[in-house]
Amino acid sequence: MSDDIPVIDLAAALAEDAPEDLLVTVRRAAETIGIIQVVNHGVPTEVIAGFNDGFRRILDLPRAEKEQLTSPTGHPYRGWRQWPDDFGRLELERFSIAQYDDTDGARAAGLSAEHATLYEHANVWPPQEPGLRAATHRYHDAFVDVARRVLGLYARVLDVPAETFPLGDDVYTTVVVNNYPKWPHTAASDEEKLLLLEHADSSVITVLHQEGDYAGLQGQRPDGTWTPVPIRPDALQVFTGTLLTNWTEGRLRPGRHRVVAGGSVTRRSSAVFVHPGLDTVVEPLPAFADPEGSDFEPVSVWERASGSVEEYLRVFGRPEQLAAWRENRPYVAEVTA
After folding, report:
1. What span, in angstroms and rounded, lies between the C-alpha atoms of 151 and 144?
2. What is the 3-state secondary structure (H, E, C) of 213-238?
3. What is the pLDDT of residues 263-274, one digit of tens each?
4. Is 71 in contact with 78 (CB distance < 8 Å)?
5. pLDDT score of 1
6. Domain CATH for 167
7. Which residues, in sequence order, are CB contacts of 65 under 8 Å at separation 6+?
8. Considering the chain, what is the average pLDDT of its residues?
9. What is the 3-state composition of the chain as percent helix, strand, coil, each rounded to the nearest 5?
10. Is the Cα dihedral 149, 2, 31, 298 positive or negative?
11. Would you say residue 324 lies in a domain?
């Protein structure tokens, strides 16, 4: 177990008679590294297994079959895609699922006409796994519930009312499944090959489950060094996102993390990113706001969500990917090794 990233019994920590030393441990991790692992979290094993097993079968399909599961419009956050490094070596493949399947589903859920445009590019559901859509919804709902309970726990350890964090009923979420390949390549420059670059999530809370034979996921300590997030089949990883840092005026540190190569089998992680509703503007809450002024600018959840594809492609998109997006057609990256 990492000394920096504690394993927390969530049910015990939320109990009325929770041990004080357990609450202190939660607060210390939330304030210093922004990552905890939770066990006894209440998510049934079969919910996690049903989701993970279905996507494992999809991601184990031959590449030619997976290419049929890309977004038909080139949307980078719908369906299957993979990307190589600058040498053409596969670093990561991902399957992305939006909260609603399309604009009709979004409108039926109560979103405004403007907000429903976020779902003009439809989800891609694999016909090989007809039960996967339902399994995904069960997984999603269970993980959102964990996010809500962790926010309640953070309110408790910060000694503010349980309802302090206004996540609301109409949360905005996304779901991703990441497959990190075995890494047989060696080179002098590959002292520590990064399969996913260091970053902090733009959510309030991210809840993740990981599988594999090595602790490739790492969290960043306050001094800039890195510590592994151990793999425990019974645990979920909970990351503080930048929106929660904003709400708390920096009191809770965003969980900066990365993924390094290693291991003898493909490593997989599946995450639900939880944000407040699309009409929310996030800024320091009264319980944490500095009366002399804030260092945190207000963040519109809608503006960030609606601009996320263009921002991603501007920073990371390759010319052929940008061309596919502009021409409203599928994009499949070339992988040479």
Report:
1. 11
2. CCCCEEEECCCCCEEECCCCCCCEEE
3. 888 899 999 999
4. yes
5. 41
6. 2.60.120.330
7. 128
8. 94
9. 30, 20, 45
10. negative
11. no
